[in-house]
Amino acid sequence: MSKPALEFFPVTDTGWTPVPGSRCEGLDERILAQDGEIATRILRFAPGTDTTPNGEQSHDFWEEVYILSGSIHDLGIGKTFTAGMYACRPPGMKHGPWISPDGCMTFEARYTRGDASARGRSQ
User: Fold this and answer.
1) How far is residue 120's CA from residue 53's CA, in Å, rounded to a whole number?
2) CA gap 74, 56 in Å, rounded
3) Alpha-carbon distance values, 5 to 24, 28, 86, 95, 118 (Å)
4) Residues 111, 117: contact at Cβ < 8 Å?
5) What is the C-alpha separation between 47 and 102, in angstroms, rounded?
6) Confidence band of 86 (pLDDT split at 50, 70, 90)
7) Dihedral sign of CA atoms 43, 50, 89, 58 in order
8) Which of 5, 13, 53, 70 fits as disulfide partner to 23, beta carbons 3.0 to 4.6 Å?
């Protein structure tokens, strides 16, 4: 199975939902395309969001993140990241927990190595 084929559409047609499994308030996502944990989404941190209850994160998939607006502060490494910054995390890379005093919005792509290889061949 793979993510669905979708032509351009207004992302506002897709509603915000709380992030499944999150133990903190103020963390919502807008799923654009998904196949299990493999997804493309917009993640929104409401002002004041603190993901400490979720702890440090790592995943068994690749994760690319681009900050669209606002900022997040990684409590684990003591650094703040702002709009226009990008991260590419291989499976197992630890990150967070985060705080976002003023709010933040990110665009994320999650995929397995096989997905990335297939994507490179189709371009």
Assistant:
1) 37
2) 10
3) 32, 24, 25, 31, 15
4) no
5) 4
6) very high
7) negative
8) 53
Q: Indicate if the pLDDT at residue 119 is higher than 60.
A: no
Its sign, for the CA torsion 57, 108, 33, 5, is negative
52: CB partners within 8 A, 6+ apart? 24, 75, 97, 99
Q: CA nearest 81: which of 111, 47, 106? A: 106
Q: Which amino acid is at 21?
A: G
90 or 2: which leads in pLDDT: 90
Q: What is the pLDDT of residue 3?
A: 86
